[in-house]
What does this fold into?
Amino acid sequence: MQFLDFLIALLPALFWGSVVLINVFVGGGPYNQIRGTTLGALIVGLGLLITGFAKFNNSTVIIVGLISGALWAFGQANQLKSISLIGVSNTMPVSTGMQLVGTTLFSVIFLGEWSSMTQIIFGLIAMILLVTGVALTSLKAKNERQSDNPEFKKAMGILIVSTVGYVGFVVLGDIFGVGGTDALFFQSVGMAIGGFILSMNHKTSLKSTALNLLPGVIWGIGNLFMFYSQPKVGVATSFSLSQLLVIVSTLGGIFILGERKDRRQMTGIWAGIIIIVIAAIILGNLK
It folds into this structure.
């Protein structure tokens, strides 16, 4: 593995972790954000279509791409709703942990990914680490009863719903062997359709939607870097490195967006994201 390939493999985490930061920075609320983001992803998809990467000769790729893209839009829209309630730094570690747990459980139960005792043991260790990491990142501030906070409770429920969309996006591709640049155009179309449906009954503005195009473009480019890096550094390594997005988004929420945390919470966040990343590395190497 060349050093340049390793650096490129880090870019998906940087790009994906920046998506929600830009969403929040430009504002507009979750419905403008999801509509703009999905249309931005469609711009990247259209670029692939124009350059000949999208093929229309495989109906499975088309159908799975459209459905999985719509599921991603559903997951992202609900994640943005959670962010509007409790912020990026509270949402992203929990959301990432839930996604890893959800996709792993589905793959193990329905796809039989863990076939050896070693995989089962290390997989269970990773799951325990994930739960621990999420709990640490969610520590309440001193003298704060976060569990009694109605917005926090509502956000956790929304994130569970969000996870269903994200897990569906990932596992559909795994089940049917659909992925890469062949599927990205059709996924982006599904995202745009999903984003429109989710926001159609809510007030949106052209300006706010346009400002939120950038996060979608960045998301799509992050995918392209992922597709490039997988054959260079391996699927397990590229997956593990991509999960560093939780560091980018969580710390970006604190230091760029100015979300306030006390010393106890910062200690929990640092410890939690390190543990989540370790768990992601273990899970990546079990694939």
Observations:
- The mean pLDDT is 92.
- The radius of gyration is 18 Å.
- Residues 9-286 form one domain.
- The chain has twelve helices and no strands.
